[in-house]
Known about the structure:
The chain has ten helices and eight strands. It has helices at about 1-25, 40-50, 75-80, 95-105, 135-150, 155-180, 195-200, 220-230, 245-255, 270-285, and strands spanning about 35-40, 55-60, 85-90, 110-115, 185-190, 205-210, 235-240, 255-260.
Amino acid sequence: MRFKRVSLIVLTLLILILSTIAVSCTGTANTTGKLGVVVTLPPLADFAGQIGGDKITVSVMVPPGANPHVYEPTPSQMVLVSKSQVYIKVGTPVEFELAWMGKILQQNAKLQVIDCSAGITLINDDPHIWNSPVEAKKMVTNILEGLVRIDSSNAAYYRDNAARYLQELDALDKYAREKFAGFANRGFMIYHPAFGYLAADYGLTELAIEQEGHEPTPRVIQESIDLARKLSINYIFVAEQFPTMQAEAIAREIGGKIVLLNSLPRDFITGVRGVVDSIAAEMEK
């Protein structure tokens, strides 16, 4: 009888151990001992990865190529959120966050949120702060401060990584300033106004075809054609996440070309350098 009781205890302990192993193998965000981090956009994933290195795992809600103004998370993404420890949000009026941040926080009440927009002055409620090297440095600092607060045991590691990456962003800022220096013409035409902060940084004028998120009317398209001719515009820029039909119509009328720009680069420095080069090509007349 005593043997049976001991066997029952052993069996119970074995079941508990196997249950713990089964739970740990279901893919929770910290099974590897790393901090589980979810971000809204690809550039934020780059910022977080540059700082967090091998101490964190990073997942992106709005994947490359998707439009953050209309994207809806998948059920598997919401499950991932429920198992993560940190959410890094843009913090500006990005439609995805306006529509889904409340639901995301309901999914995981323990989720600690880092706001990238802290200390950044918005321009006419334009959400696209991540496309500016200058604002990117502030965003990186906000992420650093958040990670240090949440995971203080790795503070020195995060600070060292951030210091290195901020130097790279300083170099990118210098590259852009030198690239745009000396141009008399400083305007560029784009379908969706995703580079207003970059334009403000370097004294450029972003000429948007799309107005307040609405497709351009025939009148707006004609006004864009007239303005492009007046300013001798050669290129009509389109962010890769947006349709090109209206922009193509304008380009045909002015004898210009469509140029795609990546407004959500996963490799931020390479992506922004490409944007700077493309816009500078418009001004080299």
